[in-house]
Amino acid sequence: MAGHSKWANIQHRKGRQDARRSRLFSRLTREVAVAARLGGPEPADNSRLRQAVVAAVAANLPRDTIERAIQRSIRRSDADQLEELCYEGYAAGGVAVLVDCITDNRNRTVAEVRNAFRRYDGSLGRSGAVSHLFKRRGRIRSPATAGLERVFELAVDQGAEEVTAADDGSIEILTAPTALETVRQALEAAGCEPWGATLYMHPLCEVEPAAEAAGKVLKLLELLDGLEDVQALHSNAIFPDGLTA
């Protein structure tokens, strides 16, 4: 299991659902606003916005909230001041971490991210420090009720690279970035109810840190996940089952 997926599963197990839901909604809203600002307000003509809206709907973000975010981007108000940043660094045990952010204050964001790394024996690096250890891929999830064999056939026919049963019972489809939307549309047309379609950084090699370092890595990821400006996290860590912070 890839470090990214393992981290997602640990997140799910650890609870704190209300706060996490609030952060998720905030991140989805920011992504919709930025996508609309950069590529236009029409999802049909803006693949990034289309994917952002699909992800938002799948997470039960209210439709009026999505529309307000798009309208704000048209007025070029708060979305004008948002910028996308990616920070790279090493956590304890040599684990590589990428931190995607959307912020209106670069100085605040870098200070918070740097302090988080330092707190748990990590170090923030320069651009390119660890990004070469990852490959951008597309990921789609469908419910197990769609049927693994059926989803496999549909997805592979449209260019999917991997189709597997995930730990949480869903079906995970991995694609090249350029095939993401094509595969999602095919699954949707076939009634397989895809739960969003996102791009993420897939680790090319995985690291399983020793127990003490693993605990620090998990605490670092949890701290970063709680920062307001952090949009997504990617790591190449493998955590043993039952690990808690």
Notes on the protein architecture:
- It is a single chain.
- This protein has 245 residues and is α+β, with helices and mostly antiparallel strands.
- The protein has three domains: 12-81, Integrase, N-terminal zinc-binding domain (Arc Repressor Mutant, subunit A), CATH 1.10.10; 83-128 and 205-235, Alpha-Beta Plaits, CATH 3.30.70; 133-203, YebC, transcriptional regulation domain (Alpha-Beta Plaits).
- Helix content is 44%, strand content 20%.
- It contains eight helices and eight strands, in the order H-H-H-H-E-E-H-E-E-H-E-E-H-E-H-E.
- The strands form two sheets. The protein has a four-stranded antiparallel beta sheet with strand order 3-1-2-8, with helices on both faces. A four-stranded antiparallel beta sheet has the order 5-6-4-7.
- A hairpin with a 5-residue loop joins strand 1 and strand 2 (96-103).
- It is globular and about 50 Å long.
- The model has no long low-confidence stretch (mean pLDDT 86).
